[in-house]
Amino acid sequence: MITVFTPTFNRAYTLPKLYESLKKQSNMKFQWLIIDDGSSDNTEKLIQNYIKENKIEIIYKKISNGGKMRAINKGVEISQKDLFFIVDSDDYLDSNAIEKIINVYKNLPKEFAGMVFRKKNIELEKDLTMFPKAIIDSTPIEIFYNKKILGDKAEIFKTSILREKKFVFPEIKGEKFIPEGLIWNRIGKKYNLRYINEIIYYFQYIPDGYTKNFNRLIKENPQGFKLYYKEMLTYPIPLYNKVKFLLRYIESYIFLFLKKRS
């Protein structure tokens, strides 16, 4: 039914927390698909030990280091399930997460691309991700910029949708990262998503994570960010955000110029 997909790079020290949460699921109709993006720590040994335990279904594949987006593309390619749920290597799930996803999927309209649940930042006492209703049928742009429902969210997509050519992450030579919103927003232009006002996913921002290293990311991946910001300027979003994205677009263009000169 569900592929819980984890791209990982040198995160053997965080994976046990996720693994423990997967073993505690109330519904075990899922496979844990791990794409190891060229780790040099003991990730492979750790996962092989998990496989030997035979507590959950695990598929492990190690590839040469190419970044999260290439790992996602590979995961979608080899996934064997209907739904694709990206869970990062430093996060973990509520014990009823899989069961809740399956229950929503049973009544999900066929023309929808998937569903979205809430995430909880465990470092914050106040929850800033409440939805105004139990269920909202909408799109990422509408939810974030018009309905003002901010914060990270847990997206679960139909695997068949992610295999559509226009929804495959661009793989740019010499770069390893593109904001996931590039593809999620593209999906929202064609399909609706069902937003569920329930927390199933827990996270925190760690020092070596993407969120806390934004400036380095944009410098190292200017083409990917340039593409993302260029597309964001085409959406019906508030003027303030358009100006912000225009400045980011110019910034990524400058970093691209400097990178080519170096």
Q: Over all CA atoms, what is the radius of gyration?
A: 18 Å
Unreliably modeled segments: none
Largest sheet: 9 strands, mixed
Which fold name fills CATH's third level, the topology of the largest domain?
A: Spore Coat Polysaccharide Biosynthesis Protein SpsA, Chain A
The H-level CATH homologous superfamily of the largest domain, spelled out, is Spore Coat Polysaccharide Biosynthesis Protein SpsA, Chain A
Number of E strands = 9
Task: Please state the overall shape, judged from the principal axes of the Cα atoms.
Answer: globular
Q: Kindly state the mean pLDDT as a whole number?
A: 95
Q: Estimate the strand proportion.
A: 15-25%
CATH architecture of the largest domain: Alpha-Beta Complex
Q: Oligomeric form of this entry?
A: single chain
Task: Specify the structural class.
Answer: alpha/beta
Helix content: 25-40%
Q: What is the number of independent domains?
A: 2
Order of helices and strands: EHEHEHEEHEEHEHHEHHH
